[in-house]
Amino acid sequence: MPRTRFAPDRGLVTRMVTTMFLIGLLYVVFVGVLIALFGRSWPIVVIIAGGLFVAQFWFSDRIAAFGMGAREVTPEQAPELHGAVDRLCALADMPKPRVAIADSDVPNAFATGRNQRNALVCATTGLLRRLEPDELEGVLAHELSHVAHRDVAVMTIASFLGVLAGVMTRVALWGGIGRSRNNTAGLVVLLVPLVSAVVYVISFLLTRLLSRYRELSADRTGALLTGRPSALASALTKVTGQMARIPTRDLRRAEPYNAFWFAPALSPGTSLANLFSSHPTLEQRLEQLGRISAQLGRG
């Protein structure tokens, strides 16, 4: 990984390696079970699994950006946004990513890309309209830290198994893969959804645990880079508070991409949503930023 001035996070690296190992092991077991169940149709399993993996790894960032309505902009079209990214990249000593804007009133931002060379950082029009310049820089520093730490790529690969499990379930139910002249077809139709459900739950829990830590890590490293944790805390408070005022229809449209967003597109106060959220609670994030502010003050 190219070095930047973002503070390294050994805890994040350890969690990413552990998650990738467990996800990879689960992936091998899952494909092996499918091959055993589908019998002579195993080449179809391998083709589908391999094709989905390649598509997820190489095109997921573009798919996510397209799904969230990201539109790449030039410095002439968005001078303030480009200026903030330029300053942060110079401060962090990292290549400048592509810059985009999503036409959405949901105040948020996200970063995608397998590495620093093809990364993209996007802010919504709702975020740009609501935040002060120092708050915007805090949010962008948070997103750039995801790019520097490459946890976006890890999350993309980690989430692949859940996608594969769902696709294979549909293929088994709709296409009848594995049918033969004996009575194994019924067993396949029963077992594939069951195995897929177990795999999905395990991969979901693993990615959620990693996702929550990586958001805290991005808050921490972004705040340390700018030296203004209070600006990031202010942005967090504004963005989270504004979510309750966004129409439910817009929130539901943004919700499938919560793992990418700076803050989850959920109405606050829902305990069940917080339990399965891809992000730590606002209180946890503000408490950490408060500790960093105190440390910087003592320094």
UniProtKB/TrEMBL annotation:
Catalytic site positions: 143
Residues that span the membrane, as ranges: 12-35, 41-59, 152-173, 185-206
Domain (Peptidase M48): residue spans on this chain: 76-290
Domain of life: Bacteria
Top-level EC class as recorded in UniProt: hydrolase
InterPro entries xrefs: HtpX_protease, Pept_M48_protease_HtpX, Peptidase_M48
Localization per record: Cell membrane
Cofactor section: Zn(2+)
Single GO term (MF): metallopeptidase activity
Principal location: membrane
Cofactor note: Binds 1 zinc ion per subunit.
Membrane topology: Multi-pass membrane protein
Alphabetized NCBIfam families for the sequence: PRK02391.1
Protein name: Protease HtpX homolog
Annotated source species: Streptomyces thermolineatus
